User: What shape does this take?
Amino acid sequence: MPRRADDRSISRRRLLGAAGATVAASLLPPSAVAAAAAEPAVDYYDKLGVAKIINAAGTYTYLTAAVMAPPVQRAVAMAAHHPVRLKDLQRASGEYIAKRLKCEGAVVSSGASAALTLGTAACVAAKGNLKSNEIPLQARERGYEVIVQKKHRYEYDHAMLICGVTIREVGSLEEYKSAFNERTVMTNYFNSAGPESEPGIIDRETWLKVAHEHGVPCHLDAAADVPPISNLWKYTEMGFDLVCFSGGKGLRGPQNAGLLLGKKRLTDLALENDSPNSDAVGRGMKVAKEQMVGMVAAVDWILEQNDEAIQAESMRRIRTIEAALKGIPTVTTTVNVPPVANHVPHLLIKYDPATVGIKPLEVAAKLRSQKQSIELSPATGVRGRIEGADENTIVVGVWMLQPGEAEIVASSLRQVLKPAKA
Assistant: This one.
């Protein structure tokens, strides 16, 4: 049924009224703005009934990764007050970060996975001299390929596939050398699944050398590989054309941000395939002004830290927890530092569940359900997830604990484990 004239009039009046209210709010005098700013902040977690947790696991996305470093929080809050031209901010932030991290070019992305997509799109564009609106269709029609080791296939393959490429698996150096052809646009190396993880994997240097012998750019996925801090320039200095990092892990930046670092000709092409360009594979991978500024602040913050201090604080937290567990029958503790990703101390608590009377997975459930909810590492009670851990092991990731939380974790673990069977 067509709408009546008075319906249209009412709708128009309502629309103008809403618009007027918005304009009025934007034209508040400075005193009113200052008064509003002075009002106490609303805790929307409490308002929504969402429980806060103590993160004794690590920088996992499902646990909202890291808490932003205090200078990053301040930078994000300040950036929210002013609009800017987004492309100006993209350019300036990229130039600043590239200079600080000793590489040619940089792009603030909406996470490491988005950086992998933008890097793939850049390599597709470079290979075929394609515009952003020709990806992914032209990549698919031309049969473009990305070469990946079979043992480096992972759930983030989708980040490349949405650019229209197919993935060509190789299982040996000989297969790798013979896999290159006129359709190859890029190779991808998953850093934490490198040669340190298991034998039979082509090492970074060899992988990179072969790619460059064939004139093909090489991307390195180093999403979770800070610390050490020097990794932020180590791999681009090795010659990798593109390297991605997560912003919300060891960098302690916004969780919904990341970095794509590398050769400027490729990072420039990545920007052409990024938001706010409408007809681009990265259009939905929007990074707000607050997140861009937050990543600049995160880079500034991490470069003021040092690996030794990070390690020392992690070990202090571990010793606090170990001290609380002394005297509990069968309990032994060791420290594991993964070789690449999440390269920080993790506490492994091993014991005999038959003696103590509770299994590690039951401990995790109890700590999760208590009023001060604690999340342990998902490696708890699982064999093979982290070296040295098995079904009888509690794994505590201490590096995302906030001040005072190591003591809470220590006390909670003791209360759960102490009532040993006679």
Q: What stands out?
A: The chain has two domains: 83-302, 307-417. Residues 307-417 form a domain with the Aspartate Aminotransferase, domain 1 fold (CATH 3.90.1150.10). The first helix runs from residue 5 to 26.
